Structure formats: C-alpha cells, structure tokens
Amino acid sequence: MSEFVKRVTQKLSKLSKEQLMSLLKKSMEDNEDFNSIIESLSIGMLIVDKNFVLKQYNTIVKSLLSFKILLDETKAFSTPVWELIDNDDISEYLKKIDENNITNSSEEFSVATPGGVVRFVTITILPLMHNGKPSGRIVKVRDITESKAHAVTIHRMENFANLTKIAAEMAHDIKNPLGAISIHVQLLQKAVEKARENENILPPPKFVENHIDIINKEIEQLNTHVMNFLLAVRPVNAKLELKDPEKIVENTIAFFEPEFNKNNIQVFYSKCEANKKVLIDEKLFHEILLNIAQNALYAITHKFEPNSATENPEIKNKDFRGKFIISTFIKDNRYIFQFSDNGCGMSDDVIAKIFEPYFTTKATGTGLGMPMVFKIIKEFSGEIRVESKEGVGSRISIFLPMPQKNKKLLTQNGD
Fold first, then answer.
1. Strand partners, 128
2. How high is the mean pLDDT of the chain?
3. Which residues of 254-270 are buried (b: 16+ CB within 10 A; e: fewer)?
4. What is the pLDDT of residues 371-392, one digit of tens each?
5. Distance between CA atoms of 328 and 250, rounded to whole angstroms?
6. Which residues contact 104 (CB under 8 A, 6 or more apart)?
7. How far is CA 104 from CA 28, 139, 190, in A?
8. Is the four-CA dihedral 184, 185, 186, 190 of positive or negative sign?
9. Distance between CA 411 and CA 160 in Å, rounded?
10. The pTM is what?
11. 66-94 average pLDDT score
12. Which of 50, 161, 167, 396 has the most beta carbons within 10 angstroms of its beta carbon?
C-alpha cells in the first residue's frame, strides 16, 4: 500500500463518495502494479499466510513446479501449499518449514518434467512482513538447471584434456602388435613365393599354422587395446539427481557382502544419519562403490592368501578376519565417504599412478576401473583421495558437495 493510500485511509469517515472512489481506484492501481512486478520476475513466487495457505503466486512458478491442484482453483486458496505441490521431497520440506515455524531457509531439489527431463530448482523461504511483524512467508523458486549444466560441462572439458595422453599410450600399444603381424605376414608371403618357385612344394608341417596363430593372437590383443581405449575415453553419461546416498550404499553392501564373508572378510558400515541428499547418478555411484569394493577384496585376499602365511603371521590366528570398513559423514559442507581395508596396501609410486588409464597391479586387470571412478566423481563435481601403506592397508575418501544448505533458521518469535 502506498503512503498516500495509508494517509487517506486514516480519514475514511470524513471522505466524500468521490474521494472514496478515488481511493478505491488508487488501491486497485497499486495492486495491479504489484501484480505486474511479481509477474515480471524471472523466478517463481508463492506468497502464503501464517498458516502456509496460498495468498498469491506468479505464472512462472507453474512452469517450475507441478501441482496436484490447479492454482487457479478456489480450493488452492484454502489448502496449505505443501499439500498442493506434486513432489514428495519439496512437499515434505515445506511441511517441516510450516511445522517448525521457520522463516528463513533454502534448499536445492531435483524435479522431473512430464517428459522425463530432470531439472534443478532452489526453494528459498523468506518472511513476509506487515507493520514490522511476520504475517506469512514468501516462497521463491529459482531454476538452476543451466548453472548445473555449465558446471558439468567444465568438468567434462577437464576430462577431455587427458585424451591426448591416452591416445598416445594407445598408439604405442597398437604399434607393437602391428609390427609383429607385419613380420609374420612377410614370412608367409616369402614361404608362398618359395613354394611356387619349387614346384608348389608346401612348407614344413605347421609352418603356416604357427604364423597364423601368432597373427590371430596379435589381432586379439589389438582388439583388446581398442576396446579398452573406447572404455577409457567414452563420455560419462550421468543423469544427475538429488538422491539419498545411504540407500545406495546399503543396497551395494548387500550385493557384495556375501562374497566378502565367503573370503573371511567382515564388512563394517558406519552410517551418516543426517538424512541429506547429494547430486549423483544412482547407477554410476553404484559402479563406484563396486569398483572400490572389488579392489579392497583383491588387496585383502592377496595379503592373506594361504601361500603367504609365513609372511603374514596374522593369518595363523584362527579368529583373524579381513576388514572392509565403510563410513559416511558430513563435514565442511561436503558428504564424505571413506573406505578402509587391512589389505596389502600400495607404495607411493602406485598411488601416484592409480588413476592413470591402463595402469594396474593385477595380473588380469585392465587398468580402467579407477580411472573410470575418477571420471565419474569429477562428473559429480567431487574429489577422491587415496592413502595407503604397504602391508597395512588403504583408505579411499570421496568428497561430494552438498546442495545449498539451510541458512540460519529464524523462528516467528525470533529465537
């Protein structure tokens, strides 16, 4: 309400009919100006009263959120807003805001459009003031999908920077098999030419077969190099959503734990109880966990395999079991996942190369598991660190950024 209208309303009993009509017209113009302002905003807006019942909204909010009841319907203006929104996470968030009398808060959410496209929004709660006192709340809805996509693009460009090095290694791996194939093809050609000059007398038995066997082996090796190269450089097609990581960790542990127990290894899980979500791809996060678990299984079984009992006196203790410990917690606005084992450990030289494509300490390893883990974590805008000591064990820590956290909470009474 403008200052002019405020002053005039204080003298309503003394106003003439014409003056009252003028006051009403001025009030309507002020209201139209206010509606124009909120309609011009690039963010969605829901204005609610003390009971969280809708008072006003702008059009853009309908394109950012899905509603169970059309906001144009009369029922929408007598129902708490958290009952109108067709998204369980956002609805629960707003319900807690209402129940706990919170007037300042902000949280990120992922929402799916009817076409299945995932978008990201920030919901911000601000106090609605009237005469210096809270009279309701303003719910701002901002689309942050483009900023998220920009961050992902930057991480992908960083990943592509390693492509030149990978390609150079690939060229080196291909060169040797091609040289061997060329030599054996030349030997076969000479043998055929000699046979023709010598009245088509064939070379000694198995001569041709031996050369062909070698060529086939080299071709198979080339094919393996090419397939590994494709795996190493393929883009990570992550479908990022705000997910509860603890549920994924629990499901993954249930998947690999029987194999660990079969190898006399105990799995310990210390769960973060914060009930927070992080921006990840569920399938790719599951792949990360499995890869780290398989590496821990190899390290532990390699250290305590039967033929190394003399080098590892601990294995003589019948009660000894290998240990794989998973702990999750939140610190410095990051969700941290730690994986510790009491396996054979790694030297500093190995740690320095662990994320390089094709580097492996396993006889049958491809050297692509940990590089892929690194790529996925970068796609999640996270970090990974490796600590290890030979003969003692290793610890891998993954740091994922938390979505925008709540600002300092203010209640209606100012506590």
1. 136
2. 79
3. eebbeebeeeebebeee
4. 888 888 988 889 999 999 998 9
5. 11
6. 125, 126, 127, 407, 408, 409, 410
7. 31, 10, 85
8. positive
9. 48
10. 0.53
11. 89
12. 396
Count CB neighbours of 9 within 10 A: 12
Q: Say how many C-beta atoms besides its own lie within 10 A of residue 373's C-beta.
A: 23
For residue 246, count other CB atoms closer than 10 A to its CB: 19
Give dist(CA 82, CA 71) in Å, integer: 13
Would you say 344 and 303 are in contact if contact means Cβ atoms under 8 Å apart?
yes
Strand order in the sheet with 118-130: 54-57, 44-49, 133-143, 118-130, 105-112
Across the range 215-219, mean pLDDT stands at: 81
For residue 131, what pLDDT is reported?
78
Distance between CA 392 and CA 347 in Å, rounded?
11
User: What would the two tokens of residue 302 be?
Assistant: 């390699």
User: Tokens standing for 203?
Assistant: 């070379």
Residues 212, 49: Cα–Cα separation, whole Å? 83
Q: How many other CB atoms sit within 10 Å of the CB of residue 77?
A: 14
What does the chain come to in residues?
Answer: 415
Which are the contacts of 185, defined by CB distance < 8 A and separation ≥ 6?
Answer: 211, 215
List Cβ neighbours of 45 (8 Å cut-off, separation of 6 or more). Answer: 38, 56, 57, 58, 60, 61, 138, 139, 140, 141
What is the tens place of the pLDDT at every residue in 119-138?
Answer: 888 899 999 888 788 889 99
What whole-number distance in Å separates Cα of residue 11 and Cα of residue 83? 42
As a whole number, mean pLDDT of residues 176-189 equals 80
